[in-house]
């Protein structure tokens, strides 16, 4: 077989989808853990968060992982795009009458759409915070660190921005609800004893993580 | 028992390259004891009497084991009901006055031949690519007990082997993926000692052929498992994912 091992077969594409997807899940945990500091809206909390943001953008090991993260996001999106294009081509004539709800969940069938919405959210999210942190004109706090906290607090005084974040976390929740357990199946990790556990952990993860992420902008809006 | 009056909306297409359309046919006097195919026989009988072209559809054994009958009925492969083929679908599943939509399997890899009949030879080519064991089985029988096989493995292999290759998995999949079919054919050999020597070559060749035929990718929606008339499990897809991963990583 002369085709590339990376993206050659339909199964190889799914392995990469699963591996990058699960890596992005571990990133969500780390990102959430850091951002929960934002719930402390005192002046000390502000300084702590800014110091944390500085550490996350300057510590070499974190920087290295962040490059792997950017690559994973891009690859997950690109691979997903290739899969979606092939899937559309595989059924050139659509059914006139379909009752897909009888045998599968809507979010399982709409992973490409949900993923695209998550990507759009990511672009907006990274422009707002990540881009400003790296290349924007941020003021300094009393410790001399870039004052990312004030930017976040200011952004989340706008109700429509908070609403966008909450909606996006709902989309992410559905993406994870199917994606988490699906990744294990794609990698061939299916076992009568462990699969029910994986599915339950997946549901827990898909609910808890987005709910806590959504809590941050809502909390900051209410307490502004 | 009172007989039913139904309205059928059926895909008509005169040939592979002809433009098709949904056409409406009223059918009266449908007994609830008829199978869906018998109901179509009655409709075709009526069409022939009127000098019209009968509706082409695939059928053979009419007892749920050959995999010939297809039909996407009211939005589901083999219609409403679980673990059945269309010949096992009875008209008692419908009510007097119902409108029933009947379409062929829709997949680029299953082109329409005529009306509701599609060409499923893509499955044959996948099977021919590796779904076999290269042993001479004539005249050199080995005692069954000479090769010990754990009962669970034998049962799971048999479960996979119950696949009748009807194509409901492809028809029902949002991506027209053939993973359940190919996984069943890979699993029925992968679990048994007789299939082991060719396991790597088999899974690589069958997946390669599956991709060549233009089937979509697996999204793990699980729709195939629900609509499969033989209840083939998604565990077989996971097994094929494992088989393919190890085969790709360790092939020469």
Write a concise synopsis of the structure shown.
The complex is a heterodimer of chains A (224) and B (252). Chain A has 224 residues and is mainly α.
Give the helix/strand layout.
The complex is a heterodimer of chains A (224) and B (252).
Chain A: H1 10-35, H2 43-58, H3 60-89, H4 106-109, H5 111-135, H6 148-155, H7 159-186, H8 195-222
Chain B: E1 4-12, E2 21-30, H1 36-49, E3 72-73, E4 76-77, E5 99-103, E6 112-114, E7 117-118, H2 121-130, H3 151-161, H4 168-172, H5 179-190, H6 199-212, H7 223-227, H8 235-250
Parallel strand pairs in B: 1-5
Antiparallel strand pairs in B: 1-2, 3-4, 3-5, 6-7
> Biggest protein-protein interface?
A-B, 41 and 48 residues
Widest sheet, order of strands of chain B: 2-1-5-3-4
- Give, in order, the helices and strands of chain A: HHHHHHHH
* Poorly predicted parts of chain A: none
Tell me the Rg of chain A in angstroms.
Answer: 20 Å
Strand segment tally of chain A:
0
Shape call of chain B: elongated
Question: Average pLDDT value of chain A?
Answer: 96
In this structure, how is the largest beta sheet of chain B organized?
5 strands, mixed
Shape of chain A: elongated
- First-residue to last-residue Cα separation of chain A: 60 Å
Could you give me the name of the CATH homologous superfamily of chain A?
Fumarate reductase/succinate dehydrogenase, transmembrane subunit
Strand content of chain B: 5-15%
The number of distinct structural domains of chain B comes to 2
């Amino acid at each position: 077989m002369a085709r590339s091992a990376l993206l050659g077969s339909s199964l190889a594409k799914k392995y990469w989808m699963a591996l990058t997807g699960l890596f992005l899940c571990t990133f969500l945990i780390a990102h959430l853990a850091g951002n929960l500091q934002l719930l402390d809206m005192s002046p000390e909390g502000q300084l702590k968060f800014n110091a944390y943001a500085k550490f996350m953008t300057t510590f070499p090991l974190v920087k290295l992982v962040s490059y792997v993260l950017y690559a994973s996001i891009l690859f997950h999106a690109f691979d997903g795009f290739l899969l979606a294009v092939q899937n559309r081509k595989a059924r050139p004539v659509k059914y006139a009458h379909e009752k897909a709800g009888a045998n599968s969940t809507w979010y399982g069938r709409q992973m490409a759409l949900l993923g695209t919405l998550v990507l759009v959210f990511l672009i907006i999210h990274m422009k707002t915070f990540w881009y400003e942190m790296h290349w924007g004109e941020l003021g300094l706090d009393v410790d001399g660190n870039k004052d990312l906290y004030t930017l976040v607090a200011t952004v989340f005084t706008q109700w429509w921005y908070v609403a966008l974040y909450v909606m996006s976390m709902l989309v992410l929740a559905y993406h994870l609800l199917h994606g988490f357990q699906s990744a294990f199946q794609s990698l061939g990790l299916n076992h009568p004893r462990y699969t029910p556990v994986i599915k339950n952990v997946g549901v827990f993860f898909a609910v808890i993580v987005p709910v806590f992420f959504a809590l941050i902008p809502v909390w900051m809006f209410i307490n502004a | 028992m009172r007989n039913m009056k139904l309205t059928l909306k059926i895909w008509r297409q005169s040939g592979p390259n002809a433009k098709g359309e949904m056409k409406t046919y009223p059918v009266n006097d449908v007994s609830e004891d008829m199978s869906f195919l018998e109901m179509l026989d009655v409709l075709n009988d009526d069409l022939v009497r009127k000098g019209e072209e009968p509706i082409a559809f695939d059928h053979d054994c009419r007892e749920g084991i050959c995999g010939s009958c297809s039909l996407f009925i009211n939005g589901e492969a083999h219609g409403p009901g679980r673990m059945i083929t269309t010949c096992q679908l009875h008209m008692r599943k419908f009510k007097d006055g119902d409108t029933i939509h009947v379409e062929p399997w829709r997949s680029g890899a299953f082109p329409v031949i005529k009306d509701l009949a599609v060409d499923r030879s893509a499955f044959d080519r996948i099977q021919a690519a590796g779904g076999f064991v290269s042993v001479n089985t004539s005249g050199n029988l080995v005692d069954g007990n000479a090769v010990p096989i754990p009962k669970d493995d034998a049962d799971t292999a048999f479960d996979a082997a119950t696949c009748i290759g009807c194509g409901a998995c492809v028809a029902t999949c949002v991506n027209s993926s053939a993973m359940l079919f190919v996984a069943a054919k890979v699993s029925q050999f992968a679990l048994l000692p007789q299939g082991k020597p060719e396991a790597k070559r088999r899974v690589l060749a069958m997946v390669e052929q599956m991709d060549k035929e233009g089937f979509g990718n697996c999204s793990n929606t699980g729709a195939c498992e629900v609509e499969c008339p033989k209840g083939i499990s998604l565990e077989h897809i996971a097994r094929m994912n494992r088989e393919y991963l190890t085969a790709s990583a360790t092939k020469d």
